[in-house]
Amino acid sequence: MTKFPYLKQDFLASIVVFLVAVPLCVGVAVASGVPAELGLITGIVGGLVTGLMRGSSLQVSGPAAGLTVLVFEAVSQFGVATLGVIVLLAGLLQLAMGFLGIGRWFRAISVSVVEGMLCGIGLVIIAGQIYAAAGLKAPESGLGKIAGLPGMFADTLGSTKALTSLAIGAGTIAVIVLWKKTPKAVQTVPGALAAVVLATVATLAFSLPVATVQVEGLLGVIQPPGAEAFGELANPAIWGTIIAFALIASAESLFSAAAVDRLHNGPRTEYNKEMIAQGAGNTLCGLLGALPMTAVIVRSSANVNAGAKTKASRVLHGVWLLLFAAAMPWALALIPIPALAGILVHAGWKLIPFGQIAALWRAHKGEALILVVTAVSIVAVNMFEGVLIGLALSVVKTAWEASHVKMEIIDKGAGPIQAYLSGNATFLRLPKILDSLESLPQDRPVELDLSGLHHLDHACRTALENWAARHSATGTEPVKVTEPEEAPAEKVTA
User: Which residues cross the membrane (predicted)?
Assistant: First the structure.
């Protein structure tokens, strides 16, 4: 026991994480348009491979609701057979980023963009899974899903089968929400698992006409990518998907790591090593033709709250998943699909940061706008482009704020007019600077003092030189310019 001082705590925590992981692994797979077993394979790899590696000791990896939208788009466009190639190359890209030390730079991504990404994903998941809960096919686009909801509900009211299916989905959500109000002893069973079990029992007991999970067997779904799948790499469109998988999975994992670090007092996350661990896991998932993995905050927080102390808990959870998938595949075939849809609707709702949006709007309206625009872009276009739009907006906002410049004009009525510039003079503020200078009287000499500037970019310098030449061309005394002070060599070196 001295070698494993926390074996009891880690063992109990692994059972809890396993029970949380099963419905999520299966639900994410079904929602992604792939066999249910592929979700379990990703969970197993997340436990047995990524779980053994260094990085973040207590966070748990597996298939994530946050990648559901992206995976579904990839499967629809390139097929299930090509998914392995995409995940494999995304994993290799993550490995490269980890070995190059890029992992820690993900912490520099604007929180508003990340929250906006999660919000957009949550909205698309909710809209799409409402159709799945009713047993109906969802439109392809995010906007189509949302716009079609009124018609979907109208169709559901006219169909007993669809209404029954939707009732199972709604009941699943109600159980998950109300489960938190049950006694603590009852809550040792995760709400999502309890909801699925109750939905399954109700479906069997009343012989309800709802779709259940299709089972092919663990070995039957493992499809290592073949030559034809690798041939898809000649298609330029697939590379955008690979990059999106790598970047979004990495961002989600590393932000999850930061969140998990706040939940416990154990060792802190080593970001580059965590990136390598995620890359190794995704590389293996790609070779097995499974879903991509990320660190998942739902499983990770369950792990910490259950009393886990070391990485043994997440490794053991992978063992339990493997035993379940190998010994009880028949149990999957009993699970109603609307129950899994209900779990994902609840997961999507949890991704929408209602509190953060309100707080940001009160304190930083610009950041709140970036969050909303990122979310809307993901719904309107797709996930990758939506995140890029959010990042671009974030960069523009930062550049605008960094280019704060102040101009002070002193005119004593006689002698030269004095113009003082301070702050950062960049092309973004050029119109404001030129408007102020061009409004000065043409027949008066001007002294332009730039010594208060911290930064003067090339565009601004050229524009000021041209203005000075024009002002002096009217026969007025040449504009006298005081250049910005250069920092001492020692400071520049430092």
Answer: 12-31, 78-102, 114-134, 162-179, 191-211, 237-260, 280-298, 318-347, 368-393
